[in-house]
Amino acid sequence: MNNRVCLFVMAVILSFPRFAHPEETKKTKESLITMDEVVVTGTRSEERVERIPANVTVIDQEAIKNSSAKSVPDLLRSQEGIVVRDLLANGKSAQVDLRGFGEAAPYNNLILVDGRRVNEIDLSGVDWTQIPLDQIERIEIVRGTGTVLYGDNAVGGVINIITKTPSDRFAFSAGAIAGSYSRNQEHVSVSGGQGSFAASFYGGYDSTQGYRENNDYRAKDVGGKIVYDVAQFLSLNVTGSYHEDDYGLPGPLTKDQLAVNRRTSLDPLDKAETEDGYVKLGSEVFFGNWGNLVADLSYRSRDSKSDFPDSLFPYVIDSQIETYGFTPRYVHKGDLIGHNNTLITGADFYRIDQDLKTYSGFLSSSTTLTGLADISRDSYGVYVNDDFSVLENLILTLGARHEKADYDLHQRDLSAFPLAPLDETVEVSENAYTAGLTWLYSGKSALFGRYNRSFRFPLTDELVLFDYVAGNIRVNQNLKPQTGDHYEVGARHFFTSNLQANITFYRAEIKDEIFFNKATFTNENYDQTLHQGMEIGCRADLFEILTLFGSYTYEKATFRDGPFDGKDIPAVPRNKFNIGLRIHDVIPQLVFSADYFYVGDSYLISDQANRFERLESYYTLNLRLSYAWKWVNVFAGVNNVTDQEYSEYGLIGGFASTPYYYPAPERNWVGGIEIRY
Length: 677
Hints:
This protein has about 675 residues and is mainly β.
């Protein structure tokens, strides 16, 4: 990037006049006192956004309610620094990319639900449909590595989905949604409490035939949360949910096939299903001036099955994963040598067990058991992070983490010509560090800069190799943990209480980045890659009836040295921006929303040599109108108003290295009604 341009943009933001008269300044100061935005993801404890040395965004309840999103990835599309690739157009297998990791994005971003990690140990990625939209209170996004506080996977950033917490006030809601492609969704929830006890429960059903053939999706969800303040010094909570779904796998199409019928499927019988449930017990003990102790104990069980009944080589993959977690931490907020100080130290313990069965056949519709795997991973991480106020408006952040993981790998080939079995253990460990500085130069306006060291451990699928030449299953001994050095500076500036903007420049020098090399059909380390870019966001509330917002992202991710020196990392567009508006209360309780999204072109996945055509740039325009009357809220919307034909996901596939694409939906509509009490 041109350094002079970067410095100029930052200087413009910081020097922009406040243009507020005294009465407005007074109101602004009151707003700063009463409207401070507090997040928990940036420090694993409650902290005001402006004190965190990172680009942090909160998608609140109002933004969720007024969006046209039908899944969490849809909500994230408008955020700077994030690119969404939704293969099935239902959120199930969507890839959310923070800071340009392309195909490997699902393994370089950490996703949390109420602070509980939901990334898997294999290549299955994150299931974004496990939490219904109507149960989300807010989503916190911390861009840039969060490895010190969270460990493995948190390279590009951390996204924390925070669900609604019940109170002693009785609340009830029920709603229904209908839309294109036979979409129908129903949900109901109830919450309430008495004194120090409160509980909530919800249930939902979601179904659609999908945009394409064999693109159907059906899901059921139930869940709830209980909070109990046992005493002034002790609070307990229990959260749990169960999700099940079944869906079609339509597969990709070539460009010629898209031209004939972009809604067709070449795999009309491929199917998959999931059962996913978890329970989490949380506790917080308050020691007064001596701080507080927080501990979460969680269990998750996930069963998934994929069925590919090909006429020549049918096969089935059946996976069962159990995850146990224990994450205690101690938080102390007080004075240190006369200065404000926040100390957090803790440990993360996880055990993950996976039973994997594969069934296959040849020239037959039936399959037999041909593969059996018993895989486990035990990990622990210990960390400390401290925020020290050098001055009242100058905060120094320092932190460190050590993490270790042990893999126990057992795999059997039960085919007619079996490979030698695998029975091995693998041990990896890494350290991470952070150092940051935040200057609160005016109210909630702040400058920040920080350095971080990150790491990512290999996934189990990346570690195991089927060597048909040597005739065995073995560990990929050449695969090392990925590490990185990250640098970023940024500013959050409030021109007035109703006008704000932020800008961040970042640079990540990654060593041994893990990627899939199609030429060798193995997961390998690439010696050096470089991820750098700029993120800009802004928001303006005007005339009490109009809200304008937008974001722009420039990111350049390239290979350095080696066979792909100077080539772009596939699936990382250089440019992305969005513009949106909300017109509200011209007629009381009537809200009109419009959102425009643009994503630039990028190389197809697996095209590390940049030899093939690019995935074309695209844009969409979504409109939505909602009206609330007493207990009733109704809405209607149109997505992709201009009826664009585009694809979010493209790859080089097959032995012939053919470009393939997953087509996205054309113009479609949605409408719904909800009753809240």
